[in-house]
Amino acid sequence: MPQLQRNRPMLLSDYEWSRNPRGMHVRSPFDSDLSIRDYRTWGMGWVKLVVASYDYLGLVPRFIDAGITPVVRVYLGRHGNQPMTRQHRDYYIRFAQAGVKWFEFYNEPNLPVEWPIGVVPDWRNRSLLEPLVENWLDWAEFIVSIGGYPGFVPFAESADVTETAVLRWIDAMLAYIANRHYDRFINLAVNGLYCATHPYILNHFYQEGFGGNPRPPGEQRARGTSPWHFEYPYDPFTQSLDPGRTAFGGTDQTPFGDPNGLIAVGRIFNERCAELFGVQSIPVLGTEGGIWRFPAPGEAGYQQDVRFPPYTNQSHAQATLAMFDWIAQQAPPWFFGVTLWIEDDYVEDGQAALNVLSQNAPYTKEVPDISVLEDSSFYFASGAPDSIRGPGPVHGQADLHMVLLDDTLSVDWFFETASGYWDRFRPIVTTNTDFLDMMPYSKSLAITLVVSSVRRFEAENFIRENYPNAYLDPLIVQDGNTYAQLATVFQQRVETGRRFG
Q1: CA gap 444, 434 in Å, rounded
Q2: Cα–Cα distance between 476 and 492 in angstroms, integer?
Q3: 436-472, pLDDT tens digit by residue?
Q4: Which of 378, 306, 316 is nearest to 352 (CA)?
Q5: Residues 270, 194 within the same domain
Q6: pTM of the full structure
Q7: 323-374 pLDDT, tens per residue?
Q8: Pairing assessment for the beta strands 471-477 and 445-452 based on DSSP bridges
Q9: The domain spanning residue 472 has which CATH number?
Q10: Domain match, 412 and 289 both
């Protein structure tokens, strides 16, 4: 087993992606004219795949080879707050094996269309909210265990009424997690959590004209000399109209917050996480959104907010390029991009935008080495001797539990043959010893080591020498043993209620 050098939380620069903020959302899990050649022509760095089974699976390696980072959400229908099913789990494993790291689970649970017919979603309804949070946490920990990045639940960015207001949903979810599952959230944050958002930004953007006021649409040029503003509602023009407005509200005109900007919900999430968990910076990715709707050629422009200029088909194209340039060059370092909604609309009516993107190469986003946690010393090295890496000593029962598989086995084998054990005890499951270095000294760890008899002493010695505080629970695969016999051992543990042998 390899020896690893780091004992720290994720840095923003650790996340694996194209560094190109341009993205596109596929048409649907059932029907797409998806062409990797087109995505390369448009200069895309992200592709959002919504899958109903294994559709697009074969394209994943080709996207990655082309420098386009896939994001996968399994289509759930009216799933409400129900847990991940075994079938969903198998999809995630297969896509992770193909190279996907970015995943989503629930989708816009503040809208009735995502719930069984007759259910009215409301963040104040604890019987709806609490299972949503609990099941999301279980899913997120599973995604981390297969080497992926789990997305915090994306919401429809509503500020209209109290029961759907995205600010209230995020506040309610994070407060519940902070009260009940503080450590679990920190573990997710330091191991690859990101925040998925749906920034449909209306006409909340502008290019500066005379006196700093917005230019009319016919005078906008994406790569002109005048600066663009996509930081709504923190931009100078908005502040001149309603001083003090923030994404959280803050003024009489915004009682339920003002989330309809490119980075507004990302700021809400990061600032709340800073207050509740000491988080410094968690990546944010717009997994749907952009300037939507957009006018077809010849249509009059859209002007959803009369304070800002309308946009036409041509100015929409300029603003779309400007938006991606702004993300790469001026957005907060935690904002990684947007996948435009939606592929077929752009192909059919948004050719002006696609043409402009095709004619202008994307800018690369430089991502700094900013730690997820503002001060990780209390978490990763609290009282640790200089010579000790990884977890601290066990006092009574270990805080954390890992199933560490010999690299002759695989994570998907475990979930296929020992799913009952995972359902009962919910350990971290991995073949990667990176996770051992990521364990904080302030937490203790038990390791169920599943290893072949010929490698037993090498593996046990590696753990004892490098992680002497870990409680070791070896589960040895004897010569001639079948995987089915090993699965039987896990099942016996479930039946007797024994986590360890």
Answers
A1: 16
A2: 15
A3: 877 777 778 899 999 888 888 888 999 888 888 899 9
A4: 316
A5: yes
A6: 0.85
A7: 999 999 999 999 999 999 999 899 988 999 999 999 999 999 999 999 998 7
A8: parallel
A9: 3.40.50
A10: no
